[in-house]
Amino acid sequence: MYPETTDYETIDSFDNADLKGLEKIINDLKSNAPYIQWDTSWHDYETLSGEITNYVTLKVPLEQYDDAEEFYEMYTSGEDISGYVPKGRFPGVYNFIEGEWELNKSIVEFIDLLSFLDHELYYATQTPILELLNL
Length: 135
What we know:
2 domains; three-stranded antiparallel β-sheet; two-stranded antiparallel sheet; 5 strands; alpha+beta
């Protein structure tokens, strides 16, 4: 579903005391912003007193960091996130309508037009549109 990536950026970290609420946070983030690849990593470290303790980092792919950070800040501050629209690499591509993400109407109309042109050109020339365009 998501592109392969190796570069992640940390959004937040949680120590042992915070881990109880982490599952709810992850579920909220994934259900309200499914287009962001929310991920976690478990880490161990040794304190100054020699005690081994651990924490979890919440991370996202580097290319989604700006949208994820903005969304996460809204989420943690208690703002209404139900109508959040990403402002990242593809602004205006999707619209949030009646609780669902939908492709922008102009894009859908453009796809329909291309499909119509492909059909008409093929009918007239018996040649696929990509061949006619030398693509």
